[in-house]
TrEMBL record, chains A, B:
Protein name: Tryptophan--tRNA ligase, cytoplasmic
EC number per UniProt: 6.1.1.2
NCBIfam families: trpS (TIGR00233)
Organism, scientific name: Anaeramoeba ignava
Compartments, as annotated in UniProt: Cytoplasm
One matching Pfam family: tRNA-synt_1b
Key words of the record: Aminoacyl-tRNA synthetase, ATP-binding, Cytoplasm, Ligase, Nucleotide-binding, Protein biosynthesis
MF terms (GO), sorted A to Z: ATP binding; tryptophan-tRNA ligase activity
The keyword Thylakoid appears for this protein: no
Length: 413, 413
């Protein structure tokens, strides 16, 4: 199977569509805001080209995708081929080094803000799991229970601990290699990272973090000091037990693009600490069921498909809430086709449908009005039900012993 | 032996002298500054009554001293009787509770800023050791290696670790009970305290710590967040392994008065955390050999007697540098006597001479001009040589195993 061949083409298409979107959005004067705590987008979604420019990142290019396909031990993931992971920092150099025999480790994470994760939360972990298999990488996964506690006035440490444990199980269910993966909560692991955290804090002033994260004088001092906790795992020296023999290992961070400010800062300070700058690989957001102008959100159950949803719940949510770009009447739809740019079911299919040819067929048939919203939704429902069901089965198999193993600091292979 | 009887009287004398000093200093318009990082005093020393008023503390009263003497299992320490420990917060309530059978633990500490400690550094530890014996208390001693690293641009983690180890040995040499004492470095122990540290940080804003500690926007984020690390040990819940059975234990903090701002803040936030407010017992500073208007300082070797000084070094320092209040000529001295208010040898004798009657004799004879500076210095030299020699002998006996025991988190008796 040669998945690799046709994919730069797919990516090309996505990019053209983005350019179109961008031009139209400019005309509408949409004010887009993407920070580590807020995402505000126009009604046709986030302008990712603009983000890349503003953040000073680079787009993942077709030659890079081809190279990843060549170096990978497993078929290229469709999220790379389709440009869901679209921007990067220094990924090209990392791949060059890998080609020359220099290994790297993966670092990703999550703030455990609620017990039940949704599909959007899963994206970086599924990507990271693929990267682990593809490049044989050790992987560290940070659960920032401290962060969530510091930012949410109502959250207790007991509650966030419970979220952390439940989230860890969902993450393990993505299929990480127990011999190569260390999952840690800041609350449990801070001690080992503390020397690096102090080194990082020493060179960051209030002014610097204020401008990056928008703090005020009323921000609590835990928030102000937190960025160092998220930066530390990007340096392999924060894991003395994991990387016993090799002191400085290259790091690749797969994450949603709103986390870039943390790692821009991390990259800025790396040379001062005589550490390697981590590479980044960033994803777009999974939009809310309700429309392209927001992210899936745990606080609105109807905006997202949760990993705990039953098949019925998934069907009802898609049928009832997934924003349709189809015509108001069947006649109108048959005549004008669906507006694919704003259609959530089609957008989700582009992410979750494994078969690119089928996506192209739907793009044609639904875009022309030949296929109806109900039919597209039905296809999406079945795919999402499958993904969630499989996840739930995997999760059920995770015992406390398995969890314990993943969360114990130990030498990774 | 009834040391207790004559001591309120001694304290009375000190207080009268302080009042005199205060009046004179006001006439001179001395601008006194006492913060956690700076002490600036007039040429006749720090105005402690003013500090107590400014900080909102209370003076330790004679009835309190009498009560301590009554409750103590050992003879009352002369530093309490002589008012070297002069101010407090809630010490009276703590003693009342102790009398009713409620135990307390002791918490003190040090920032390991250099390898060799001086006599001034030893004061809180010697007082704490006495309190441990007198009231049978468990004791925790914090070495803030992180603080010193964050504040000193040139200090490396390796260097501050070395200082921490050397300082820990000097502290143990004060005679702490190995079954009742836990010495910890933040760099090693931060993990266990981190839940409490996060709770504290969550309720402290940049504005609050800025006004207390004088931070600016260019302060590093480690400094800004540090106060929580010094506050946490004042709550017994920060030591789950030490106080396994009794969750909330009263805390008494013996320290130099410049550390009060940390604990004022700690007491302010205690109710919000449903923790007990720690009690405080604060000492005056040991002045520099060079004069009353500064503290002993590690950065000027001639300003202090170090615990590593040889008998010869002690003799030379006192003879050469200890600021004398004696007359410029013998004739003048015999006629006018010594100015005891600014005389450093007499000031040191008042702290370190064990015999109160002898101090009174010297006060009379030296103050009248009958005794010469050289004679007073000779008596001081002999006393300091003895203290330092005994300390050095104690320290020599401290093996790595002993150090290890003190620094291992474990249930205290």
């Amino acid at each position: 199977m040669s998945n690799k061949d046709n994919l730069p083409k797919e990516n090309e298409k996505e990019k053209e569509k983005e350019k179109e979107n961008k031009i139209e959005e400019k005309e509408e004067e949409v004010k887009q805001v993407v920070t580590t705590t807020k995402v505000v987008a126009g009604k046709e979604g986030v302008d990712y080209v603009k983000i890349v420019e503003e953040f000073g990142m680079q787009l993942i290019t077709d030659p890079m995708i081809e190279k990843m396909g060549k170096l990978s031990k497993t078929p290229l993931h469709h999220w790379i081929k389709r440009g869901l992971f679209f921007s990067h920092r220094n990924l090209d150099q990392l791949l060059d080094k890998y080609e020359k025999g220099e290994p790297f480790y993966l670092y990703t994470g999550r703030g455990p803000s609620s017990e039940s994760m949704h599909l959007g939360h899963l994206i970086p972990f599924m990507m990271t799991k693929w990267l682990q298999d593809a490049f044989g990488c050790p992987c560290v996964i940070q659960l920032t229970d401290d962060e969530k506690f510091l930012w949410n006035p109502k959250l207790t440490l007991e509650k966030v601990h419970q979220f952390m444990i439940e989230n860890a199980k969902d993450i393990i269910a993505c299929g990480f290699d127990p011999e190569k993966t260390f999952i840690f909560s800041d609350m449990n692991y801070i001690g080992e990272m503390y020397p690096n955290i102090c080194k990082i804090r020493k060179i960051l002033t209030f002014n610097q973090v204020r401008s990056t994260f928008g703090f005020t004088k009323s921000s609590n001092i835990g928030q102000i000091a937190f960025s160092a906790v998220q930066a530390a795992p990007a340096f392999s020296s924060s894991f003395p037990k994991l990387f016993a023999d090799k002191k400085k290992v290259n790091c690749l961070i797969p994450c949603a693009v709103d986390q870039d400010p943390y790692f821009r800062l991390t990259r800025d300070i790396a040379p001062k600490l005589k550490e390697k700058k981590p590479s980044l690989m960033c994803s777009k957001f999974i939009p809310s069921l309700l429309g392209l102008n927001e992210k899936m959100s745990s606080s609105n159950p109807n905006s997202a498909i949760f990993l705990t949803d039953t098949p019925n719940q998934i069907r009802n949510k898609i049928n009832k809430y997934a924003f349709s770009g189809g015509g108001d009447t069947i006649e109108e739809h048959r005549k004008n086709g669906a507006n694919l740019k704003v259609d959530i079911p089609f957008h989700y299919l582009k992410i979750f449908h494994p078969d690119q040819e089928r996506i192209e067929q739907i793009r044609k048939d639904y875009g022309s009005g030949q296929m109806l919203t109900g039919e597209v939704k039905k296809e999406l429902i079945s795919i999402l039900q499958d993904i969630v069901k499989k996840h739930q089965e995997n999760r059920k198999a995770i015992t406390d012993e398995v969890l314990q193993k993943f969360m114990t600091p130990r030498q990774l292979v």
